[in-house]
C-alpha cells in the first residue's frame, strides 16, 4: 500500500473519532435524562430547546468535519499518491536524499486514443507498480506525489548515485502497462533539508527541459547548491556578455566555397568553462531573460560581421517570443541602422514545433524582418515534430535547413524520394536548401546531385572557434 494511502486512512480515522465525540455526548445526555436522573423527565419548552440545540450542534459539527475532510484530502483521487500540496508539506520531515521528477511523455496521445477511465486506471497502475518496484529494492514507504497530468515527484531515501540505474530499469521493465506502451522521462537531483523547496523544484523542472531528446547518457546527479551556482554563472555570463561561439561552415555546392557559418551559442563561466545551451536556456527562460539574451547575441553577431569579409553570412537561432516582442524589434532594427553591414548577411533560424495560435499576425511580424533584408530560414524542415510544412504554405522563407534524417537515411529509397520532392518544391518557391550532418563523400555527392544548395558537416569542414574565424584568410582587411 502506498504511504499516501496509509496516511489518508489514518487521517480519516482521526476525523471519525472527532466526529463521534458530539454523537457520544448527545447519546449520554439523552440516556442520563431518561434513565439516570431521579426526577421524572418532562418535555418542557426549555428541555425541548436544549435537545434541539444539541442535535443541531452535533449535525453541524459533523457536517463541518466532513467538509473540512474533503478540502484537506491529502491524496490525488486518481493515482492515490499524495497531491502536490501534501507532498510539499511532508517533504522536509521526510528528509530524502534524492528527488526525482518522473514524466509520461506520451500522455496527450493516450488521452486521444483511450477513454479517460482507461487513462486514469493506467496512471493509478503506474504508481502502484512504481511503489511495488521500489519496495522490492528495499525502498519502503517512499514519498510519491502527483504534480499534475502525468508528472510525479518521488522522494527517496536512496543514494543519488544509484538512482539512474533504479529508474532506467523501471522505465525499461514497465515500458508497457495494461497493454499500453509508455514513453517515460525522468530527472533527479540530490536533496538537503537546508535547501529551499521552491527553488529546488524549479531546478528539477529546469533539468527536465534541458534533457536531450537523443539517446540518454546518465550524468552524476547534481545538488541544489550546484544548480544554484549554475544559475548564478548564467546570470553573470549574460551580464558580462561572455558568449562562447562555435562556427559550423556551410559550403556552397556550386562553388564549393564556405559562404555561411551556422553559429552554435554557449556561455562562458567565470573559469572560462562552457555552459551548454541545453543547460542555460531553461534558466534564461525561467528568469524571463530571453529577450535580453537574444538582443545581446544579435549585437555580438552584428559586431562580428563588421570584422570579417563581407562575403560571409551568419545563421543563428532566435526565440519566436523575442521576435514578437516590440521592444526587441525596435532595438534590433536600431542596431542595424548603427552598423554599416548588408542585412542579408544575417540569417535567423526558426524551429517551430507547433503552429502559433495567431499564425497570420506572427507571419506579418516575420515579414518585417525580411523587409529589412534579413533572411529567414526554417530549421529541421520535413521533421515529423515540426510544423514547417504548414508555415511554408503561408510564408515565403529564404532558406530551409533539412532535418538530419534525410542525410542519415539518404540511401533509403523512401527518404531519398521524399527529399527530392522537397527540394523540387523549394526550387519552385525559390528557396535555398541546406543539408546538415554530411559526414561522408557519398552523402556529399548524392546531396549535390539532388540539387541541395549548401552542405554542412564533418565531411565538408569541421566547426571552428571564434579565434580561428578571425585568423582565417577571409578576415576583413582594414
What characteristic shape results from the CA principal axes?
A: elongated
Q: Mean of residue pLDDT?
A: 85
Domain module tally: 3
How many extended strands?
17
Organism: uncultured Sulfurovum sp
GO molecular function: cyclic-guanylate-specific phosphodiesterase activity
Keywords: Membrane, Transmembrane, Transmembrane helix
Protein name: Diguanylate cyclase/phosphodiesterase (GGDEF & EAL domains) with PAS/PAC sensor(S)
What does this entry look like structurally?
The chain contains 18 helices and 17 strands. The protein has three domains: 3-71; 82-217, Alpha-Beta Plaits (2-Layer Sandwich), CATH 3.30.70.270; 229-471, EAL domain (TIM Barrel), CATH 3.20.20.450. The chain starts with a helix and ends in a 7-residue tail after the last helix. It has helices at residues 3-36, 45-71, 84-94, 107-113, 116-136, 160-173, 197-210, 224-239, 277-286, 290-305, 320-324, 326-338, 359-371, 388-394, 405-408, 413-428, 441-450, 466-471, and strands at 82-83, 98-104, 143-148, 151-156, 176-177, 180-181, 184-190, 243-252, 257-268, 274-275, 313-317, 346-350, 375-381, 399-402, 432-435, 454-455, 464-465.
Topology of this protein?
Layout: H1 3-36, H2 45-71, E1 82-83, H3 84-94, E2 98-104, H4 107-113, H5 116-136, E3 143-148, E4 151-156, H6 160-173, E5 176-177, E6 180-181, E7 184-190, H7 197-210, H8 224-239, E8 243-252, E9 257-268, E10 274-275, H9 277-286, H10 290-305, E11 313-317, H11 320-324, H12 326-338, E12 346-350, H13 359-371, E13 375-381, H14 388-394, E14 399-402, H15 405-408, H16 413-428, E15 432-435, H17 441-450, E16 454-455, E17 464-465, H18 466-471
Parallel strand pairs: 1-3, 9-11, 11-12, 12-13, 13-14, 14-15, 15-16
Antiparallel strand pairs: 2-4, 2-7, 3-4, 5-6, 8-9, 8-16, 8-17, 9-10
Helix pairs in contact: 1-2, 7-9, 10-12
Amino acid at each position: 500500500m502506498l504511504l499516501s494511502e496509509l496516511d489518508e486512512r489514518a487521517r480519516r480515522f482521526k476525523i471519525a473519532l472527532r466526529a463521534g465525540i458530539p454523537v457520544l455526548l448527545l447519546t449520554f445526555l439523552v440516556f442520563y435524562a431518561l434513565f439516570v436522573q431521579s426526577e421524572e423527565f418532562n418535555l418542557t419548552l426549555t428541555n425541548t430547546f436544549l435537545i434541539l440545540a444539541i442535535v443541531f450542534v452535533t449535525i453541524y459539527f459533523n457536517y463541518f468535519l466532513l467538509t473540512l475532510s474533503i478540502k484537506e484530502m491529502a491524496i490525488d483521487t486518481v493515482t492515490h499518491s499524495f497531491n502536490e500540496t501534501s507532498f510539499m508539506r511532508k517533504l522536509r520531515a521526510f528528509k530524502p536524499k534524492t528527488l526525482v521528477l518522473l514524466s509520461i511523455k506520451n500522455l496527450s496521445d493516450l488521452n486521444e486514443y483511450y477513454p479517460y477511465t482507461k487513462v486514469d486506471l493506467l496512471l493509478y497502475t503506474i504508481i502502484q507498480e512504481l511503489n511495488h518496484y521500489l519496495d522490492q529494492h528495499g525502498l519502503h514507504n517512499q514519498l510519491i506525489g502527483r504534480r499534475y497530468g502525468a508528472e510525479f515527484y518521488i522522494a527517496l531515501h536512496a543514494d543519488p548515485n544509484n538512482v539512474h540505474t533504479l529508474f532506467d530499469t523501471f522505465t525499461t521493465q514497465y515500458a508497457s502497462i495494461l497493454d499500453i506502451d509508455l514513453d517515460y522521462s525522468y530527472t533527479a537531483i540530490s536533496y538537503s533539508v537546508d535547501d529551499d523547496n521552491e527553488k529546488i523544484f524549479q531546478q528539477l523542472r529546469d533539468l527536465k527541459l534541458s534533457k536531450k531528446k537523443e539517446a540518454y547518457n546518465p550524468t552524476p546527479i547534481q545538488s541544489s547548491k550546484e544548480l544554484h551556482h549554475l544559475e548564478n554563472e548564467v546570470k553573470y555570463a549574460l551580464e558580462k556578455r561572455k558568449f562562447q561561439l562555435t562556427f559550423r561552415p556551410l559550403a556552397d555546392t556550386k562553388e564549393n566555397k564556405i559562404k555561411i557559418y551556422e553559429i552554435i551559442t554557449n556561455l562562458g563561466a567565470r573559469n572560462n568553462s562552457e555552459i551548454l545551451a541545453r543547460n542555460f536556456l531553461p534558466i534564461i527562460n525561467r528568469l524571463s531573460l530571453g529577450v535580453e539574451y537574444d538582443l545581446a547575441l544579435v549585437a555580438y553577431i552584428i559586431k562580428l560581421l563588421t570584422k570579417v569579409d563581407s562575403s560571409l553570412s551568419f545563421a543563428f537561432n532566435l526565440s519566436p517570443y523575442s521576435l514578437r516582442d516590440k521592444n526587441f524589434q525596435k532595438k534590433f532594427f536600431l542596431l542595424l541602422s548603427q552598423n554599416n553591414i548588408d542585412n542579408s548577411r544575417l540569417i535567423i533560424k526558426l524551429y517551430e514545433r507547433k503552429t502559433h495560435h495567431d499564425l497570420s499576425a506572427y507571419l506579418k511580424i516575420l515579414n518585417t524582418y525580411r523587409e529589412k533584408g534579413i533572411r529567414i530560414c526554417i530549421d529541421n524542415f520535413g521533421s515529423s515534430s515540426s510544423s514547417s510544412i504548414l508555415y511554408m504554405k503561408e510564408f515565403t522563407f529564404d532558406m530551409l535547413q533539412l532535418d538530419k534524417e534525410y542525410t542519415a537515411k539518404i540511401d533509403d529509397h523512401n527518404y531519398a524520394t521524399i527529399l527530392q520532392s522537397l527540394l523540387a518544391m523549394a526550387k519552385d518557391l525559390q528557396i535555398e536548401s541546406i543539408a546538415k550532418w554530411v559526414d561522408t563523400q557519398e552523402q556529399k555527392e548524392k546531396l549535390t546531385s539532388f540539387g541541395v544548395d549548401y552542405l554542412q558537416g564533418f565531411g565538408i569542414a569541421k566547426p571552428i572557434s571564434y579565434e580561428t574565424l578571425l585568423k582565417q584568410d577571409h578576415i576583413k582587411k582594414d
